[in-house]
Amino acid sequence: MQELSPNIQSRYQSIDFLRGIAVLGILLMNIPGFSFPSFPYHLFTDYTGINYRSEIFVTVFFEGTMRGLFSMLFGASCMLILSKNNDVNSIDIYYRRLLWMFLFGLFNFYILLWDGDILYSYAICGLFLFPFRKIEAKYLIIIGLILSFWLFGRSAYRYIDQRKPKYEAYKSAMTDSLSLHKKLIPKQREDIAAFKEMSAWMKKDTAKINSNIREMRGNYKTIFNKRWKDADEYQKWTLYNTNFWDYMLMMFIGMGFFKLGVFTNKLTTRQYGLMALVGYSFGLFMRIRFVNSFYYDEKGFENFFETYTIPTGAFSDIQRVMMTVGHIGLLMLVYRSGAFNWLVKILSKAGQMALSNYLLQSILCGLFFYGFGFGMFAKLQIYQNYLFVMCIWLICIVFSNIWLNYFKFGPAEWLWRSLTYWKKQEMKP
What count of other Cβ atoms lies within 10 Å of the Cβ of residue 298? Predict the structure, then answer.
């Protein structure tokens, strides 16, 4: 399949195809945040049968990988812009583009009321990518892998140094109390309380759950106040504690992959097949181990500490990298085969309008689940949420393909580009 040079009139169709998959697939991960209270599913849903199976399927194949693919492609798009030229005007455009993206993220946070927005985070991460633009591809990938192993080490250290000792102290105190019938000293009571606090998140608090549901079924002002607090917490802590490094490692790998031609159909069929084989072999093995370690009550929580010297969750970023690499290999095989040109074409249109579709997902989910719309918050089962996601996919695909028959850019892309260049862009093809 012939590739086009990346300019205003022509694009890399392969990148648009991958981005279309990513922007649609990421809703599989976001839908619980739109539709459920911020508590584990098993506390307020029937977590058996089709609900359980559908959730496990999505977890194994898509958990974190769609965001990972999106992050890699963001790194690739930054590299694409920076690779055109390095004059002052080009750099100015790059940073203005990020600053406007930052504002789109705030709009999604505070107006569309989606506290899981990634535009805000990506814009911040993008500010740090510029100094790395001239580094060789292999070193960019190595930087990404080093960050993934660093996150593994940090998570493993916290488990071994902090969480596991709390369990051991709790276990010792409970043995003295229940088996040996000893009177607990104050330190032992503190140890029990510390472990109980660590496991408190899995205990059903009906009052909190019902309060959360009432808020999200309320009017716009009520939901705004709720989301404001959630977004504020995310911006102050979650982004910089964990997600920043998660995004950056994927962006570095994405920049390296772009330089190697991974996203632009420059590799051989054998190389893409090897990516899929290696990525899925290691990624699926670790994913299945991860799923098998799930626990849903305090007893399961205790068994986890008895079973694992290093928590399976510590491998999260490594397994996400491997699964995402597997996805890229498989999707590029689909792309270059030519047998699915019709699918590539319609999904590429969705990817070409990735920003518009991402914001459209927030609008449609808000109208469907929130109280100022249809008020369906916490009314669907897990598998029904995924069926709703498929409906959103269909809307985004149809909208993108119809819109781009008449216009050069998606509506959000047109606004973004016009603001970046501070000049109204021509919409007609």
Answer: 14
d(CA 386, CA 29): 10
Distance of CA 105 to the CA centre of its chain: 15
pLDDT-derived band at 88 (thresholds 50, 70, 90) equals: low
Alpha-carbon distance 74 to 66, whole Å?
Answer: 12
pTM of this prediction?
0.91
Q: What is the mean pLDDT of the chain?
A: 89
The stretches of 234-268 forming alpha helices (DSSP H) are 244-260
Domain assignments of the chain as residue spans, ordered by start: 13-421
To the nearest 10°, the Cα dihedral for 248, 252, 253, 258? 130
Residue position matching structure tokens 């059903």: 204
Summarised one tens digit per residue, pLDDT across range 240-287 is: 777 899 999 999 999 999 999 999 999 999 999 999 999 999 999 888
CA nearest 227: which of 374, 111, 377, 359? 111
Do 86 and 263 form a contact (C-beta atoms < 8 A)? no
The residues, any chain, with a CB within 8 Å of residue 36's CB and separated by 6 or more, are 44, 45, 377, 378, 385
Residue-wise over 20-47: b if at least 16 C-beta within 10 A, else e?
bbbbbbbbbbbbbebbbbebbbbbbbee
